[in-house]
Specification:
The complex is a heterotrimer of chains A (490), B (468) and C (103). With 490 residues, chain A is an alpha/beta fold. Helices cover 39% and strands 12% of the residues of chain A. In chain A, helix 2 packs antiparallel against helix 3 and helix 5 packs parallel to helix 6. Chain B folds into three domains: 265 residues, no CATH class; 101 residues, no CATH class; 59 residues, Arc Repressor Mutant, subunit A (Orthogonal Bundle). In chain B, helix 7 runs antiparallel to helix 8 and helix 12 packs across helix 14. Chain B is elongated. Chain C has five helices and three strands, in the order H-H-H-H-E-H-E-E. The chains are: A alpha/beta (490), B alpha+beta (468), C mainly alpha (103). At the A-C interface, helix 9, helix 10, helix 11, helix 12 and helix 13 of A face helix 2, helix 3 and helix 4 of C. The structure holds magnesium ion and zinc ion.
Chain lengths: 490, 468, 103
């Protein structure tokens, strides 16, 4: 390779795929270049629970053979992709960063994994997460925390912290995460990458190890909006294996990215701009609003009153569903077993040893919220708040095409800063939770840095199934921050 | 001592006769090698998701419509409790919005028993308790086979309308008949595809309030159901007569000692923490869908009994037996073909217990016609019928082959004349109204005709002669 | 509204841990009781709302009748299934004695 050709690790995913499909780069070379970066920095970052380098080499060689034979390996040909370690990979360990699943190999691929393989993507490893996706810092991993590539003393956010860090560190130009209350968008914001939470039902959950089933969504993390759009086109679309899958084909996103925001009505959510949001974060959201206005959008203040109840409702609903979803880790069929004289005692011993403190906390919170005498006061009421949030968003979308808000109240915080106080940690999700409760899509786009020089993402929210419009606005913000428009780079 | 009344409500779990399981494509089959019909979904593997089986929903709707239920929009809930034969440690079941509500089962004697609901849920796997003679409390380990996990069930909950063990048995038999008629289930209690739990309480006769009930489990046949209800009734009456309270609890029927025993309660109080199953969406049995399912329903046992009674004039007991055996269609068709209603019913009730084999409708009709014409005696008809069932054929030809040529009227009349002539004393008594000698003459004629004569025809000829 | 001190007691937490098949040390019991109380206290804003006229939303999607045809699909290979199990006997999953009966 001549010096004139930049290494693939500096390229966005769509350019790698284009080059591989044209035969200008080999998938094997692309892979090795990424593996080299991983070997250089992974010991410091700990983005991965498991590297799938052997599998990846086989898959990359196959892609190259397809190209040589004149076949199109697919839209993500040769693109290394990092998978959050709560996505099932056939024959490859899937741990959810939990002792209770250590060593377990699923006998099947998640639908998104199968779709990535079909699209020619090269799966390079399973990324670290907060155990069972419960957390906002990736510190609650049984296998140790992931560090923020921009400042290893700080957290990458979570729970998809490993995926966000992998993209930010150049380990992979694409990663998948899961987002139940902000777990894609918040780490994307803290690591300075793009993170998309699609509409609930847009991407099949089949093979995503459940945290809170009515809120979980899989989505991409990527260096650019176009990369995220390309990944979403591949993984989205109806799946008969998921009853909650939207019965529509994958949306056309890439082709529409350049359409701009001329004439779109954008509202800044007042309820998410107040107390608790750091001033530098607020300023970046205001700057983003200005950039969109500059690009032709009509920007105004919007109100979603019930969004203020989102956090409370979420921390009743999500743990309740989790308490049920995680009951199956009982030491009977797979994973860890700690022996004891009776089955009940064995269940207890296994779960007590296998789950970390945060998981136990949420299981107990959820069990409590569902238990006799408390259901109506807690779970039942939270489900009603959900109705209010959906109603208030619907009302806002009568006046606006898109909404704008912060993602994380702050930039990346130091490791350990919030670990001791769960409630403080939970407050990290205040701006991201409303979209999960409403089932609507949203995206975190890097939009400059805070006073500490750390990345800040802004959130674009859209009505259900309006990913295309949402990503058009994200692309405009991306352009603006790159200096192509005034008001972007600070 | 006052009179007591037993009050029984039944909860019946039936496996639906689908090809695949309720939420996955694994085979729904009994008796396969352990753990061969399992997949990520029915093993509850991490990441797996349920998708509802249309066939199971339609069978549940069929049953609901057959029971006269309102078929409603419904949802699934999770019922959370830890148990090793339940792969997810929750059961997906319909809770406060079941698919079928407010039906009725009409027993053969016309009693109507209310059905509160008939809802869909998934079955559990099967545990075998090893060591300690296989008894659960003494076992030293248990082995779990998940082939049955996720098999579709309907749970049919009766209202507490049953008043005796016999009635409970009749209810289960009738429900089984409906399940078979609709094709919803093969309803085999021995194989466990139909499982009955009984809620039993007693109260002073005439009372309109309910006593404290006990739920009795492990009833493997209608016989044990009846025995358990009788036992439980006696036990509760004894308690109450002694001034002791009945404690609400779940009890286990022990077939061997003929008693119910309290089940060791779990160390934790039951708190199932029901909540809506987020992995499934609601069911809305739209009108056209319901209409299509209803259209495909066959005529059900109660309606068939009414029809058969109307057409044949037979009594409740005979009609019940014939419909239970599924012979009503044959009887009705044979009547159409000119058969004799009374004789068709007699044969269907008493002589066709097993199979109808090679018997066809016309032959059955012809046989009863020959009987009615006096061409065959009842005993001969039975023999001819057995041959028709075994090898088929035409009743006339079969009768001939068996040597049952019909006596012509002349031959019979001659034999009667001869018997009268040979026994003048007896004839005088007959003329004097002594009917006891009728049998004597019939016997004489039988002897003379080698048993080919029909008793009724002989009697008729004797009367004719006396009158003439 | 329940005052915070009574919102959730250590005995509530112990009961819930029992239901969830978790065992807590005395220190954990105390720590978790405080932490759960904090979260429930934060949820007091929701508790205080009058939502008697509001219908609960279990699910963000308005889908109904998502069904698959009653068709048999291949099951998993038994060896692979049992290989994942902590203990197997006679092609079945082996567990210690089970006390009590299922619900
Ligand atoms: Mg049941
Ligand atoms: Zn299955």
């Amino acid at each position: 390779m001549s010096d004139a050709v930049p290494p693939s690790t500096s390229l966005p995913a769509v350019e790698i795929a284009a080059a591989v499909r044209r035969g200008e780069r080999s998938a094997v070379e692309v892979l090795e270049e990424h593996l080299a970066v991983i070997h250089e920095r992974e010991h410091e970052i700990h983005a991965f629970n498991l590297l799938m380098d052997d599998h990846a080499r086989v898959a990359a060689a196959h892609v190259d053979r397809q190209v040589a034979a004149g076949h199109d390996p697919g839209p993500l040909a040769g693109v290394p992709v990092a998978l959050k370690d709560n996505l099932c990979t056939s024959g490859v360990p899937t741990t959810c960063s939990s002792r209770i699943l250590e060593g377990w190999c699923p006998p099947y691929d998640a639908t998104v994994v199968a779709r990535l393989r079909m699209a020619g993507a090269i799966l390079i490893g399973k990324t670290n997460l907060d155990e069972f996706a419960m957390g906002s810092s990736t510190e609650h991993s049984a296998f140790g925390p992931t560090r923020n590539p921009h400042d290893p003393a700080r957290v990458p956010g979570g729970s998809s912290g490993g995926s966000a860090a992998a993209v930010a560190a150049g380990f992979a130009p694409l990663a998948l995460g899961s987002d139940t209350g902000g777990s894609i968008r918040q780490p994307a914001s803290l690591c300075g990458v793009v993170g998309v939470k699609p509409t609930y039902g847009r991407v099949s959950r089949y093979g995503l190890v459940a945290f809170a089933s009515s809120l979980d969504q899989i989505g991409p993390l990527a260096p650019t909006v176009a990369d995220a759009a390309a990944a979403l086109e591949v993984i989205a679309g109806h799946d008969p294996l998921d009853s909650t899958s939207v019965p529509e084909p994958a949306p056309e996103l890439l082709a529409r990215l350049g359409e701009g925001v001329e004439g779109l009505r954008v509202g800044v959510v007042a309820e998410l701009m107040g107390e608790g949001i750091a001033p530098d974060v607020r300023r970046r959201v205001e700057a983003a609003a200005d950039a969109l206005a500059e690009a032709g959008a009509k920007v105004d203040d919007a109100t979603v009153p019930a969004a203020t109840y989102g956090l409370s409702a979420y921390y009743l609903i999500a743990p309740a569903e989790a308490s049920s979803n995680l009951a199956r880790y009982d030491g009977v069929r797979y994973g860890l077993r700690v022996d004891a004289p009776t089955t009940a005692a064995m269940n207890t011993a296994t779960r007590t040893a296998g789950f970390g403190a945060e998981v136990k906390r949420r299981i107990m919170l959820g069990t409590y919220a569902l238990s006799a005498g408390y259901y109506d006061a807690y779970y039942g009421k939270a489900q009603k708040v959900r109705t209010l949030i959906i109603r208030d968003f619907a009302a806002a979308y009568e006046s606006f095409d898109l909404l704008l808000s912060p993602v994380s109240p702050t930039t990346a915080f130091p490791l350990g800063a919030k670990a001791a106080d769960p409630l403080t940690m939970y407050l990290s999700d205040v701006c991201t939770i409303p979209s999960n409760l409403a089932g609507d899509p949203s995206v975190s786009v890097p939009f400059g840095t805070g006073d500490d020089g750390l990345a800040i993402g802004v959130q674009v929210l859209a009505p259900a199934l309006a990913e295309a419009t949402m990503l058009r606005a994200a692309a405009v913000l991306e352009d603006a921050v790159a200096g192509n428009h005034p008001g972007g780079r600070r | 001592m006052s009179e007591w009344e037993t009050v029984v409500g039944l909860e019946v779990h039936c496996e639906l006769a689908t090809a695949s399981k309720l939420f996955c494509g694994c085979r729904n089959a009994f008796g396969d090698e352990p753990n061969t019909n399992v997949c990520p979904v029915c093993l509850g593997l991490p990441g797996s998701l349920p998708v509802l089986n249309r066939g199971a929903v339609e069978l549940a709707m069929r049953l609901g419509l057959a029971l006269g239920c309102e078929v409603r929009p419904s949802t699934f809930h999770r019922k959370n409790y830890f148990y090793p034969d339940m792969p997810k440690d929750y059961q997906i079941s319909q809770y406060d919005e079941p698919i079928n509500v407010d039906g009725v089962i009409e027993l053969p004697d016309g009693t109507r028993i209310g059905v509160e609901r008939a809802h869909l849920e998934e079955d559990t796997g099967k545990s075998t308790h090893v060591g300690g003679g296989g008894r659960i409390h003494e076992a030293d380990r248990s082995l779990v086979d998940y082939n049955r996990a996720g098999v579709p069930l309907v749970e049919i909950v009766s209202r507490p309308d049953l008043r005796s063990a016999e009635q409970a048995k009749a209810y289960v038999n009738e429900l089984r008949a409906v399940l078979l008629a609709t094709g919803a289930s093969d309803a085999r209690m021995e194989e466990g595809s139909m499982r009955v739990d009984a809620n039993v309480s007693v109260r002073p006769a005439g009372s309109s309030t309910f006593g404290t009930r006990c739920e009795v489990k492990n009833l493997n046949s209608t016989r044990s159901l009846a025995r358990a209800i009788d036992y439980e009734t006696r036990r509760q009456i004894e308690l109450l007569t002694d001034g002791e309270p009945v404690v609400q609890q779940t009890r286990h029927w022990d077939e061997a000692d003929g008693r119910t025993h309290p089940l060791r309660s779990k160390e934790e109080a039951f708190d199932y923490r029901y909540f809506p199953e987020p992995d499934l969406v609601a069911l809305a049995p739209l009108e056209e869908w319901q209409a299509a399912v209803a259209e495909a329903l066959p005529l059900l046992p109660a309606a068939r009994r009414r029809r058969l009674a109307d057409v044949t004039g037979a009594g409740i007991a005979s009609v019940a037996v014939v419909v239970e055996r599924g012979l009503d269609h044959l009887v009705l068709a044979a009547m159409e073909a000119g058969g004799d209603a009374g004789r068709l019913m007699v044969h269907a009730e008493h002589d066709l217990a097993g199979t109808t084999g090679a018997l066809d409708v016309d032959a059955f009709a012809g046989l009863t016609r020959m009987e009615a014409d006096g061409a065959l005696t009842a005993t001969q008809a039975k023999a001819v019928l057995a041959e028709l069932v075994a090898n088929g054929g035409d009743p006339q030809a079969v009768a001939a082959a068996l040597g049952y040529e019909a006596l012509s009227g002349d031959v019979l009349a001659e034999a009667v004349d001869a018997a009268v002539a040979a026994n003048p004393g007896a004839w005088d008594r007959f003329l004097a109204g002594d009917t006891k000698v009728t049998g004597f003459f019939v016997g004489q004629v039988m002897k003379a005709t080698a048993g080919k004569a029909d008793g009724k025809a002989v009697t008729a000829l004797l009367r004719q002669r006396a009158a003439g | 509204m329940v005052p915070m001190a009574e919102r959730i007691t250590p005995s509530d937490v112990a009961h819930v841990a029992d239901l969830a098949r978790l065992e807590l040390s005395p220190e954990e019991l105390e720590l978790f009781t405080g932490q759960l109380a904090d979260v429930l206290d934060h949820a007091a804003d929701v508790e205080a709302l009058d939502l008697s006229e509001v219908v609960p939303t279990a699910h963000p999607l308005p889908l109904v009748n998502v069904l698959r045809d009653d068709v048999v699909r291949p099951s998993l290979d038994r060896r692979a299934v049992l290989d994942a199990a902590p203990a197997v006997e006679d092609h079945r999953f082996q567990v210690p004695p089970v006390l009590g009966e299922p619900g």
